[in-house]
Amino acid sequence: MGKAGRPRNQTARRQALVSAAGRAIAERGLEGLRIKDIADAAGVSQGSVLYYYPELDDLVLEVHRGAVESYLASRQRAYDEAPAGDPAARLRALLHSGLPSLTDDPVHGLLYELHRRAGRSPGHAELMTSLFAREVALYTTALEVGAATGVFTLAASAQDLAHSLVALEDGYGLHIVSHNAALRPDRARELIMAHARAVTGRADL
Description:
Elements (H helix, E strand, L loop, with lengths): L1 H27 L6 H8 L3 H7 L3 H26 L5 H11 L8 H10 L6 H27 L9 H20 L7 H16 L5
């Protein structure tokens, strides 16, 4: 019985450390991240952190993976919860789910912080690439369905437009979490919605 319970306990402990590391990164950033910060956030000893994650980079990679999956799940949920027979509503839901709502948005702030590792780590680069591709796939589906049902008149291929929409979200989002006073969340949302209306021919988006 004890042996059967151990893997579950280890999984729970690893998940708790990943969650604690995410909080520590969001609060302190990656550059100054220490094992002590994670241990304090998790309420465990530094030795416990090192037992499960001897290499800090492995733990940071798990935080990145969890953040990517959580963010994608929230975007998929937004799309799925919009009326299935209303392509415009579904595209609107996607557009509203892609930008930080505040300058201190924890999810977006964490993702931008972790994406900084992509230039130095193949694992982080793979996660960033995967996130982009899966967001593009979501938008491509929304645009293709709208075009196929005559709701949208697309200005370019659905995939090209999807690439642009995700890139716009990433660019605007970076300015928002960087506290750029000239580009507040509401203004960024207004700009990306205007772009979406122009490329779909749908004035009521």
